[in-house]
Batch of 3 targets.
Target 1
Amino acid sequence: MTTSALRLGLRANAAQFTLLVAVNALVGGLLGSERTVLPLLAEREFDLTAYTAALTYILAFGATKAVTNFLAGALSDRYGRKPVLIAGWLAAIPVPLMIIWAPSWGWVVGANVLLGVSQGLAWSTTVIMKIDLAGPARRGLAMGLNEAAGYLAVATTALATGWLAAAHGLRPVPFLLALAYAGLGLGLSLASVRETHGHARREAATHVTGTAEQHHGLSTGRVAALTSWREPALSAASQAGMVNNLNDGLAWGLFPLLFATAGLSLTQIGILAALYPAVWGLGQLVTGQASDRYGRKPFVVAGMLAQAVALAWIARADGFAGWAAAAVLLGAGTAAVYPTLLATVGDVAHPAWRARAVGVYRLWRDGGFAVGALLAGAVADLAGVRAAVWVVAALTAASGLLAWIRMYETHPRAARLPRPDVARPGPRPVA
């Protein structure tokens, strides 16, 4: 099919879009297989008592995924989206097997390096492919559906592995579910997913902005500079994304240990580990679409501040009910932020270099896992888990205030402004 014959929009591409939603659910399920079990595995089977040492797997995952996100954007622009997606699934196959057979903690860390590669390639590419298919009008809804599928799968798998661990032990049964996800994801990607790079070229051919430099010729270094610090909305999104995933790294690595010290059962820990990403996932079905109507900035600022309040609540609470309520608020705040930040990048970046901009944004965002592992582990070793939660709560509040100050509204309908000149950033537009 020629580029000119391709159509943009969710309705025109419903079958492929739905398939990609299912594929991303499998990507999320692979990640969710670790959420309940791995922190407890570190403590109970590998006798890791120092929090910094126990969180090395999150550090390895986050650092690797961040770098791979960046590469995924560049590779998908050069070689196409589908080959990058398939490479991500090939990297996923050994992950559950390495954890099942691990004779030492180093094997688990190595498995999470591969998990970071897999998630960076596969999740980044499903994001890029959905942006390609959706076109500009419904980008927030597209990202809401994508991220909802991924994080609902994280939640249901975290809950399922908690039950499996309670019934059958921490290994190997919970990780057999992850192996099934990887095999199914690889099979669907090989057999049924179609290339979407042509849709991006189709949008680029009709995209109207300022200078020719905006359409073509931006180096990867230029794109990285714009997304990281030069362009106000892109840089605000990058810092908010990093802090958001710093929160998630804290929740992944330390919350199960905090709950265990309070005497909660494996089933209760699994419920709490699932509740936060479940609300996060479901909420994105609403927030992504709502940001198409009401704008991106209100959801980003309110979501970061809500996460800060939720983390402070978790630091003060001391029981299942209090932690469950705080997990709901944390999930709601994250749902407000997650698809909206991706939609913001899609709003500002030109289709010719949008995949690279998404890669740079996700480099910063998932670098938050590594920063969170180092920061939360160090503070927890020095002053306890609750102190680490308080520190992250303060950082999250600061991130929300920074987004409020620096970010402008990027959705054209909400802003009632022409698109910003991202090739030559100037003063922040006034909405």
Target 2
Amino acid sequence: MNFYNEQLPADANLQFKALKALVIANCRLTGSIPPWLNGLTRLQLLDLSLNHLRGSIPAFFGDFKFLFYLDLSNNSLSGEIPKNLTRLESLISRDISLEEPPTDFPFFKRGNMYKNRGMTLQYKQIMRFPPFLDLSSNLLTGPISPEFGNLKRLLVLDLKHNNLSGSIPGSLSGMRSIEMLDLSFNRLTGIIPASLVSLNFLSKFSVAYNNLTGIIPSGGQFSTFTNSSFEGNSGLCGEFFVNCHKIHQGALQTPASENNEASDIIMPVLTGFGTGFLLTVILLLIVPAIRDKNKTD
């Protein structure tokens, strides 16, 4: 909450090789993410949220061996999500050591949708922050990379309020530790993969306001999610939706209506056939009898 409307310095020669945490949030910073951040090879936590940053997300973020907390939310970043972000080692392997002694001063982080919304959280160690990736409320486009499923240690993935398209990869079930997954307010299509039911720690999930279709998976943590997790998708069918019953009724009514139409055609034909058959029988029985009677007379 300083440096209002200033621009991050663009000098490529800036070097902060020992820096582990950089938090410049809620400052209305302008411009793009500067290339000198590439030199922060020891960085574990980066928070540039609630600014006015533009341009794309640098692919070099994925090369940071120790980065496990990245918050770029509430900016105007555009383009596709770099695939390199799915290669963050500290979100893939538990072998990356982040142990360190407590600092002499606390870190403060305002609560978000993950938990303690609106409250200020205090941490004495960087490593106490949850493994976290928040790219929400930007202008990002393109698909969600299936390689996100590689991030086995990630607890929070927030991609809401963007312009992401394509389908939800079933491989996201590989994020075994995920507790919050928010894909709402995008342009996603297709079904909700049934494989996501296997995410045993998922406590918050939302795909609201996309263009999804099909039946909502059941079982696992999905039994705990409310209507708000799925609303705004007219093609979804599930326990919470009236249109689900309409879909099933439509499926049942279609053959019936076709049968009714067929019966409307067949009945007159059968009626006509029956009438003709009856007249033929009458003629065959009565006419010979009349002839015999005339001969006798």
Target 3
Amino acid sequence: MGHEVWTHGDVYSYGILLLEMFTGKRPTDNMFQGTSSLRNIVIAALPEQVVEVVDPVLVQEYEEGEMRSNNRLTEDRARIRIKIEDSLISILEIGVACSAELPRERLDISDAVAEICRIRNILRANRIFE
């Protein structure tokens, strides 16, 4: 408030928005008190516990889709699940990089958008979420 618009501030907001969308949590939730924050929770979960931190609705929708397509080979399902988890990790890493505490440490918005497009293209190429 009272300051000029600055791309480093905008990229911070973009990063927090990504974290909110993919975790289903708000940075103002009561669970974040003291030094605990949405960003810190995501950092602690990456990469091994990404499924624990993403919005359960995202995981549920994938699992429901997997059940509907039970004619796919098990190897196919495993490959798709790995691609989805890798994509979630990458997206959350972008959110973390964009929302770094110090503005000079934040990811440039053009790099963030390019990375999101790269993830989308990988998912499309693998016919995931067309």
